[in-house]
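Appendix B, Record 12. Input sequence as logged:
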Amino acid sequence: MSTEVDAVVWDIGHVLVQWSIRGLYEQLIADPAELDWFLEHVVTLPWHFRHDAGEPLADLIAEKVAQYPEHRALIEAYGPRWLETIPGPIEGTPALVEALAARRVPQFAITNFGADTWAMFRPTFPALDHMGDVVVSGVERLIKPDPAIFQLAAQRFGHPPERMLFIDDNARNIASAEALGWRVHHFTRGAEVLEADLRTLGLL
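Logged structural output:
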């Protein structure tokens, strides 16, 4: 008989909210070929992930400006306009947060998010008010799928891993958590499938 689950732990990007660097820069670069080149060579995902791992956004922007001074205006736009990389919520999942809160199910989050961008984003998303705690990679300087971030989260959240359902869209993060004994839901088929899983577990 499986262990009862009594807490839900959310990933944020691509589970609760959409996220796309392209969503910002397609507003600033009209030519599709130029846009593709810029996102492949200048403001790239690996570069952004260094912010998620703990490097200050201002330092990363200054480094890129030094490398590509001809693109200074576009690179520097990344800071003040970063919220435009989040076009909106994932359909259905914020409503599940509200439904779980109504049932008084403890909820938490583990997110790969830079400290600077987290400070910008957090006030804009009221669903996070229902989280008892959020472990943010850029603050802790630990990033999923490193097992250490899940171990820290288990200590902070105060529930055994086997009694927490971790929801994430990234297969590597899911595998890392599962190896440590967490219950997991790989979020690949939308909110309806997740809702069915939550009902099966008796959480809704």
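The chain has two domains: 7-18+87-200, 21-85.
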